[in-house]
Amino acid sequence: MMQRVSIVLFFVTTAGMAVLPVQGVWAQNQKSDAAKEPVGAPPASVRPNDSALPPRHVDEEKTDAVTPEKSQVTGLRFLSSKTYTRIMLDLSQDAKYEVRQLKEDATKGTPARIYIDISGARLTLASKEPIVVEDGLLRQIRIGQYSADVVRVVLDMHSLRGHNTFMLPDPYRLVIDVQGQKVPQTTATKEAPAKKAPAGRKPETKEKKPTAAVAPGIRKIVLDPGHGGKDPGAIGLDGSTEKDIVLRIAKKLAAKLRKELGIQVVLTRKDDQYLELIDRTYLANAEAADLFISLHMNASENTDARGIETYYLDNTTDEAARRLAARENGTSRNNISDLEFILADMKQNMKLEESITLAHRLQTSSVGGMAKVMGNVKDLGVKKALFHVLVGAHMPCVLVEMFFITNRNEGRALSQNKYQDAMVQALYDGIRKYQQTTFIAKNL
Ligand SMILES: [Zn+2]
């Protein structure tokens, strides 16, 4: 299923090529020559309409800010799929940024553009030449040192309907997701004008899913077996690893959903490979999945801790949820608070209510289903938490902690086919119930 999406990677760094563990078709390109042309002088056909740019108040703000060290912009890459394009910038440290968009101006021959000014930043890319994308949505990416203090990234678009920008820490990455109406290359120029252009230039313009594309029920699910490769996740008392157990369950669940419900299922990983968290949700978005379900097993220093809990993404102040989020994200706890600001933006893209409903269906079903084979199962409930893996997803998404691998009974059980199958059945039932509910709701 993964091969249906053509994912293109372009990665330029000062250190050379880096390969991300995202499955798909890679197109790699690296320009080793230092650019001779400053970004301030792009080709005339795509030159920004400078009179349309806002005043450079970023510089003015800088005068009273004390910045001991500039954030270095060390890498630029993009991931391109049928439905949207993700651009990622690697930064050496946190930085302020502003995003603007400009409408196409046919009289000047300038395309619709998004530009991002990163203040207190210095560009250290080897190549500063425009990067041609031409995926039907994004024409090309230009990057340059706009002023002594500002790195500007300009996205020359074919069409533009919305974008979402957020910073991820550890390491710092500025992520720009651009949604649009991808059109065949031959008709791109005809399709691009006014109809598709946003009404204003407000950078916070949000994308709504086209209603015609919404089918009742669930068409496609992305299942995300947590961890993998060099990241084993939690480890059981008998040495079993979370990454292995969740992969086995995910594969069985995928097969069952395909066979019995005819749902397309995409696994973020099919084997023991390491996958960056951000690439997991990218895949879900690229596949335009209806649901994103991340499968994990819990862990605790207290080997008596037991039970099942399900999470959906939301802001939270609950300390335990933060600790869990830190562990699942593989980051220190302090970084979690850095994510909170993302949520104000993300909430508009998140189908929060549907995520909560899905979380409850899976929680109820897995507790009830496992109780049939294991007796007493502790219901730890539905909770909200911050997870990198759930940030950036455009569909209802949840994370299930299927028992504690650190609990002798529960860890041993989920290592066995019999209990894995019971868990698969329980998750399947939860998805089916969720599907029935949404189908009914959409057909009232
Ligand atoms: Zn986990």
Sum this structure up briefly:
The chain has 444 residues and is an alpha/beta fold. The chain has helices at 57-63, 188-191, 242-261, 277-286, 319-329, 334-349, 352-374, 408-414, 417-442; strands at 8-13, 71-80, 84-91, 96-102, 112-119, 121-123, 131-132, 138-145, 150-157, 162-168, 173-179, 220-225, 264-267, 291-298, 308-313, 379-385, 397-404. The protein binds zinc ion.
Provide an overview of this structure.
- The protein is an alpha/beta fold and 444 residues long.
- It is built from nine helices and 17 strands.
- The strands form three sheets. Strands 1, 2, 3, 6, 10 and 11 form a six-stranded mixed β-sheet that branches.
- It is elongated, with a radius of gyration of 23 Å.
- 45% of the residues are buried.
- The structure holds zinc ion.
Structural features:
444 residues, alpha/beta, Immunoglobulin-like, Aminopeptidase, six-stranded mixed sheet, disordered N terminus, binds zinc ion
Helices and strands in order, then pairings?
Layout: E1 8-13, H1 57-63, E2 71-80, E3 84-91, E4 96-102, E5 112-119, E6 121-123, E7 131-132, E8 138-145, E9 150-157, E10 162-168, E11 173-179, H2 188-191, E12 220-225, H3 242-261, E13 264-267, H4 277-286, E14 291-298, E15 308-313, H5 319-329, H6 334-349, H7 352-374, E16 379-385, E17 397-404, H8 408-414, H9 417-442
Parallel strand pairs: 2-6, 12-13, 12-14, 14-17, 15-16
Antiparallel strand pairs: 1-2, 2-3, 3-11, 4-5, 5-9, 7-8, 8-9, 10-11, 15-17
Helix pairs in contact: 3-9, 7-9
The protein binds zinc ion.
